[in-house]
Design a protein that fits this description.
6 strands, 7 helices
């Protein structure tokens, strides 16, 4: 075998090895819980809006980076969630749920609505490997229009991407 052929083969092997070593981060996004404390709580419209947040976040993260979205069945999430906000408060339990499904990261969120004029996307990014909170986000949504929700989710996705791309110790 001549030298240029051997060099091309070695370069090809090195290129393949470098791509296979860099797998896309695997993110599990749990369904957002609605914490509506207004005088007319949990309307069907607000429940639909909250239910739309996980799929919107999956789409937004798909546009911002190379991630593999892990789908955790609703029944598995419900079984792990002993009550409202349980997985949101206990990072290690959310991490174990993500670990059972092969995720590197778990996003646990609440849609907190203290007023008819504004609400918040409260989201925790859990590092499955360390079973600890990696970042916490609070995005204010002024209004309840679809565009407001989409902008808030886009902002959240950008913050999540920045957190995941930070070097891990």
């Amino acid at each position: 075998m001549n030298r240029p052929t051997l060099t091309r083969i070695l370069l090809s092997i090195l290129l393949l090895a470098s791509h296979t070593g860099q797998a896309a981060p695997r993110i599990a996004i749990l369904s957002f819980e609605l914490n509506d404390i207004t005088s007319l709580p949990n309307t069907p419209e607000e429940q639909r809006r909250t239910a739309s947040m996980r799929p919107l976040l999956e789409q937004a993260l798909g546009k911002t980076g190379d991630y593999e979205i892990i789908r955790i069945p609703a029944a598995d999430q419900a079984a792990a969630n002993s009550g409202f906000g349980y997985l949101f408060r206990f990072d290690e339990l959310a991490a174990k749920l993500g670990e059972r499904h092969g995720a590197d990261w778990v996003l646990v969120g609440q849609h907190s609505k203290p007023s008819f004029l504004f609400s918040y996307l409260l989201t925790n990014l859990i590092d499955v490997k360390s079973q600890a909170l990696a970042a916490s986000y609070a995005i204010e949504l002024k209004g309840n229009h679809e565009k407001v929700t989409q902008r808030g989710i886009k902002s959240l996705a950008d913050k999540i991407q920045a957190s995941i791309n930070k070097p891990r110790l």
